[in-house]
Amino acid sequence: MSTCSDASGAIMPLPKVRRATGFGWALPALAFVGIFFVVPVAILLLRSVLEPVPGLGNYAQLIGSATYLKIFANTFIVSGLVTVISLLIGFPVAWALAIMPGRLTSVIFAILLLSMWTNLLARTYAWMVLLQRTGLINKMLIGMGLIDQPLALVNNLTGVTIGMTYIMLPFIILPLYGVIKKIDPSTLQAAALCGANRWQCLTRVLLPLAMPGMAAGALMVFVMSLGYFVTPSLLGGTANMMLAELIAQFVQSLVNWGMGGAAALVLLVVTLSLYAVQLRFFGNQNPGGR
Amino acid sequence: MKTTFAFAAVAAFVAVSAPVKADNLVFSSWGGTTQDAQKAAWASPFTEKTGITVVQDGPTDYGKLKAMVEAGEVNWDVVDVEGDYAAQAGKNGQLEKLDFSVIDKSKLDPRFVTDYSVGSFYYSFVIGCNADAVKACPKTWADLFDTAKFPGKRTFYKWSAPGVIEAALLADGVPADKLYPLDLDRAFKKLDTIKSDIIWWSGGAQSQQLLASAEAPVGSVWNGRMTALAATGIKVETSWEQNITAADALVVPKGAPNAEAAMKFIALATSAEPQAALAKATGYAPINLDSAKLMDPETAKTLPDQQTASQVNADMNYWAENRDAIGEKWYAWQAK
Q: Which chain B residue is nearest to residue A250, measuring alpha carbons?
């Protein structure tokens, strides 16, 4: 499955891997990014300090309001939860994929990729149907006599976490698979021969070797979660509102671009600093293993 | 598979880059069954009559509209927006004044006509109920807020827009003619009493899903969605007691390239027959006063314009004035 490690490599930040020998090739791409990304973002950010009156009023309002702070907190709590759970589920799956016989691997990859390519809205609605009070899961649990009142699985934090974890899983499994696949099995054998028990093999050999993949996957899931819109909006309650929904509301329905820009800048700064941290610590260890 | 994709990509590219010619008109609305109905009831006869092609676009997005107007690059000629937004945008200079020498406003419901907008269709927030799922259906807003008499989840519209605040105040005993200016503190206090029992809907399809699945067997929904739900065979009950009406509006963005054709389009869309046809297809009421006599009686009795006995008009001008302030409080309360 060399394509998969390529795919996982392509979505990682790849510093210093291919040393640029000429700048020319990058120009069209840079121009594209400049025109379609940097300029609009710069305009939006300018508006955040110019509208409705010049100054930092929008930022003061964002930071000074308990509501907005709660939305920031929600965003980080949900993203963190989703990242941790995705790692906990994703790691064993990636490990299993790496050591499984080839045919089974392709079946599981097919399932993984198909779910990734299915329309996001359809998947989110499917979770809604599964999780609601009259949904399949509650009916099953009641039918089995495990509970007598339906559990509140949707329109709250539980619903958002389940739905988003499901959607993010491929993004953590694929890079992890790429890294684990590259780990030489003989390192584990060597560790065992030197007297390491299973736990030690896992914590002192496997996990450190898989760390770049875990960090890259976790960062990607966390950052994607920070800006997520559809799933939290549909599976969460209003008490779990996240930043992206707030921005959408400012821009689309309240037509308050100043506040929308300010909130977007905060999100952008947080995202970029996370990338910076990741580059600082894992920048030299390319998970693609080239 | 590949060819479909390539075709779609090319089609999308052409759609984006096609120059807006003078014999074209771009109409933006909210998508879904409502826009399908608008296409059939308004756009088709318009093209037949004038030879002007109507390109459908959407969904309507106020941020996008504002960006177009500010950049002077408007590519929507007629836009279906919410009534309170139309009033606000008109004041803010983002809309063209409508040409009432082309549009005959003498036949239009005056509640929904301003210098910058005319009604598109009007709807009511009604009390919907899945009669199979509950012992008794709530009849009044007070019932809907009474969790002792009607236990279980209820659903309300999620966004800050006319409807829920009015319902809370009516439920708390405010007389319909004393609603405005809205007593927000009182409304939120009333809403607090049922906050943990509310599941919010953010789009019409979701409100239907919540009612049909009995996830929230009762709630405040757009009347047209109840008509559609009844048609699927689910046993639903609609209470029109104090139904709260609001209207969508048709507007022309400032600097629209085909403003002249836009006026003609609006003239036709608001005339009696197309309005009746739209009402028949959507379950929303016509804003042309002559349309009622063109409706078959079966459809007519499911429309808000037949339910005026205890009808409450949401005050679009009040909302336009206070849209931002209410929105801020609304989302703060929701996130609490």
A: B63
Contact B227/A at CB under 8 A = no
The rounded distance, in Å, linking the Cα atoms of B190 and A150 is: 27
The answer to whether the CB of B249 falls within 8 A of the CB of B284 is no
DSSP state of B119: E
Q: Which of B154, B159, B215, B322 best tests the A interface by mutation, with the highest count of A CBs <10 A?
A: B215
Instruction: Test B327 with A251 for CB contact under 8 angstroms.
Output: no
Q: Please state, in angstroms and rounded to a whole number, the distance separating the CA atoms of residues B277 and B71.
A: 36
Nearest C-alpha of chain A: how many angstroms from B51? Answer: 34
- Phi then psi for B128, rounded to 5 degrees? -100, 150
- Of B8-17, B80-89, B196-205, least confident by mean pLDDT is B8-17
Contacts of A124 (CB under 8 A, 6+ apart): A163, A167, A230, A231, A234, A235
Contacts of B206 in chain A (CB under 8 A): 234
Residues of chain B contacting residue A231, judged by C-beta atoms under 8 Å apart: none
- To the nearest whole angstrom, how far is the Cα of B139 from the nearest Cα of chain A? 24
Asked if the Cβ–Cβ distance from A67 to B331 is below 8 Å, we say yes
The tens digit of pLDDT for each residue in B267-324 reads 999 999 999 999 999 999 999 999 999 998 888 888 998 888 889 999 999 999 998 8
Mean pLDDT computed over A207-221 = 90
Residue B313 forms contact with A (CB below 8 Å): no
Chain A residue whose CA is closest to B216: A133
For residue B72 the two structure tokens come to 């002077």
Closest Cα partner for A170 from A122, A129, A128, A110?
A: A110
Rounded to whole angstroms, the Cα distance separating A85 from B305 reads: 52
| Structural element, H or E, at residue B171 | helix B164-171
- The pLDDT score that the predictor gives to residue B142 is 97
- Give the burial string for B250-262 (b: 16+ CB within 10 Å, else e): bbbbbbbbbbebb
Average pLDDT over residues B166-190: 97
For residue B98, the model assigns a pLDDT of 97
pLDDT tens-digit readout, B244-261: 999 999 999 999 999 999
pTM above 0.90, yes or no: no
Whether ipTM tops 0.95, in short, is no
- Residue where the block lists tokens 């177009």: B68
- Give me B175's structure tokens: 């007389």
Q: What is the mean pLDDT of chain A?
A: 85
Q: Which of A266, A206, A218 is nearest to A68 (CA)?
A: A266
Q: Which of residues 119-138 of A touch B (CB under 8 A)?
A: 128-129, 132-135
Structure tokens at B236: 């639903």
Can the peptide bond before residue B19 be classed as cis, meaning omega within 30 degrees of 0? no
Q: How far is the CA of B336 from the CAs of A65, A67, A232, B190, in angstroms?
A: 12, 7, 16, 15
Whose CA is closest to B222, among B24, B75, B82?
B82
Nearest CA in chain B to A65: B332
- Cα of A30 vs its chain's centroid, Å: 25
Token duo for residue A184: 């030489």
- B221 Cα distance to chain centroid: 11
